[in-house]
Amino acid sequence: QQKYVEILNKDLKEANATKDKFFSIVAHDLKSPFNSLLVLTNLLIDDFDTLSREDQKKFIEQIKESSENTFALLQNLLDWASTQMGKTKIVSERVDIAKISDEILALLQPIARSKKISLKSEIPLDTLVYADKNMVSTVLLNLVTNAIKFTPQFGNVSIRSAIDNKQLEIEVADSGVGISPENLDKLFRLDQKVQTVGTAKEKGTGLGLIICKEFIEKNNGKLWAKSIVGKGSQFYFTLPV
């Protein structure tokens, strides 16, 4: 009975942590970008006639950037909430990691090019895993996006793979700023918040890596990271072959 009570208490703590995280995001992370949007649009409306064409364009660009950040946050929030409520359905099938990697790199190439970052996939064609394609795509999209975000100009981001004990190990490596040991321990914890600004002042949502971990674990894999400050980071995940 005591053991049962301990399990219940543990589950209750986890549920409270989930609830606290949800309200923290809604109250702060989601509120801030909307405030930014309101301020920018009000300034643009009030001063439109006195602003130069260049200043008008600058305001519109800032509104676009704020809107994109808000949409990304909302999408991550919805994905995460869906996993918490058990509504995310897993459709496992044979998928080619090489094709998914190429699609992700093609999608993110414009962002990388703007920072003069080299993107490269070293995964050979027909590298098959048994997993949910959409979940794997979401994980790779998040990991490569983060790698670009925290890599300075003229850096490198690469995706590699290797077979290890009937599992495919995928690595997303970058030559970026790295992560301190203290923050590395907090990355995948719901009760901790690690939210840093990218090398071009890009903002994150704070939920991406938590979603990645949950998606990989739902596909019978593991996700972890290694990093040295100033020398880049490597994120690894495994999937059954």
Short description:
A 5-stranded mixed sheet has the order 2-4-5-7-6. The protein has a two-stranded antiparallel sheet with strand order 1-3.
Q: What Rg, in angstroms, do the CA atoms define?
A: 20 Å
Which percent range fits the helix content?
A: 40-55%
User: What does the main sheet amount to?
Assistant: 5 strands, mixed
What's the N-to-C terminus distance? Answer: 41 Å
String of helices and strands: HHHEHEEHEEHHEE
Find the count of extended strands (DSSP E, 2+ residues).
7
- The order of strands across the largest sheet is 2-4-5-7-6
Overall shape:
globular
- pLDDT average, as an integer? 82
| Regions with little confidence, pLDDT below 50 for 5+ residues | none
Provide the structure class. alpha+beta
Structure description:
The chain is 52% helix and 19% strand. It is an alpha+beta fold and 241 residues long. The chain is globular.
Give the helices and strands, then pairings.
Blueprint (H helix, E strand, L loop, with lengths): L1 H28 L1 H16 L6 H32 L7 E5 H18 L3 E4 L6 E5 H17 L6 E9 L2 E8 L6 H4 L23 H11 L4 E6 L3 E9 L1
Parallel strand pairs: 2-4
Antiparallel strand pairs: 1-3, 4-5, 5-7, 6-7
Helix pairs in contact: 1-3, 2-3, 3-7, 4-5, 5-7
Features:
7 helices; alpha+beta; five-stranded mixed sheet; 241 residues; 19% strand; globular
